[in-house]
Write a structure and sequence with these properties.
Shape: globular
Radius of gyration: 24 Å
Number of helices: 14
Helix content: over 70%
Strand content: under 5%
Oligomer: single chain
Largest sheet: none
Length: 285
């Protein structure tokens, strides 16, 4: 009995230590992230001379000159619109395809189901950059280079994480309700659209935001496939300023802050749904 109590005390102490360590690491990471984001925003209101003499700190005097310069650039609004269209259409396609695939894998028994589940899981191990050469060849042959639709296809095909997330959620759906709907004569598509989708809003928002951040900040694929000025995205605009870093130092912070605004707005608007989706609180068996 004494040994058991002693072992329990040791396990409790080790558990508390691990939790405290994780908490400290998370607080440190969050503090560093907040500091870097805050400094970026503050730097966007500094003059070039103020940035040189006061790289980290409160601006000597706030100025909107950097934003005026960036927003006055000839193609800046075009870049912003391209990013909105590209990310918006990609997210819609990705959510629809991934949710349908995940629902089928989670709710139906069929030959090859295990293979498909493992296939999507294996996709999590390989970054999309490894397939850049065959993707480039395929888009070139399909005449979809320098075309936003071509990049939409690539983003939509990146299904591994969305399918994995949706599948975990759909496995917890109450099968009795779905079976009742089938007995009442509802088609599989009606069950999916009128029953599954409404109760899946938390996980839909979660997958949407996580992929939104990834797609909105994506630099590599637009750099490879969108070389024309008319189809470039906002991340490429920031890259254009960084090509001559010292000359465009003030512009970089302003452009980066503008690119950050949509992510922050969407996070604060849908933060509750995102937490519910991550904790799987929408459906409880």
């Amino acid at each position: 009995m004494k040994k058991r109590r002693k072992n329990r005390k040791i396990e409790a102490k080790s558990t508390r230590f691990v939790k405290n360590l994780i908490s400290v690491l998370l607080i440190a990471y969050s503090s560093l992230s907040i500091f870097l984001i805050g400094n970026t925003i503050l730097s966007s209101f500094k003059t070039k001379s103020d940035l040189i003499n006061n790289t980290i700190g409160w601006p000597e005097s706030f100025t909107l000159e950097n934003y005026a310069i960036v927003l006055g650039e000839e193609h800046f609004f075009r870049y912003f619109l391209n990013s909105v269209v590209l990310v918006g259409v990609s997210l819609i396609c990705l959510e629809v395809v991934a949710s349908m695939a995940a629902y089928g894998l989670a709710q139906y028994e069929f030959k090859g189901r295990g293979f498909l589940q493992n296939y999507f899981l294996v996709g999590l191990m390989f970054p999309i950059q490894l397939g850049i050469l065959p993707l480039f060849i395929m888009l070139t042959k399909a005449h979809l280079n320098n075309n936003l639709f071509g990049l939409v296809l690539i983003y939509t095909a990146n299904l591994s994480f969305p399918v994995f997330t949706f599948s975990r959620f759909f496995r917890e759906l109450p099968t009795s309700v779905i079976e009742s709907a089938r007995i009442d004569g509802a088609s599989e598509f009606q069950i999916y659209t009128k029953m599954v989708v409404p109760i899946s809003k938390p996980v839909i928002f979660t997958v949407g935001l996580l992929n939104f951040v990834q797609l909105w900040n994506d630099f590599f694929l637009p750099l490879v496939f969108l070389t024309k000025t008319s189809v470039r995205t906002l991340t490429l605009a920031v890259y254009n300023y960084s090509a001559n870093f010292l000359a465009n130092w003030n512009k970089i912070f302003a452009a980066a802050t503008i690119a950050l605004i949509p992510v922050v707005i969407i996070y604060f608007l849908f933060s509750e749904q995102i937490v519910a989706g991550l904790t799987g609180g929408a459906v409880k068996g």
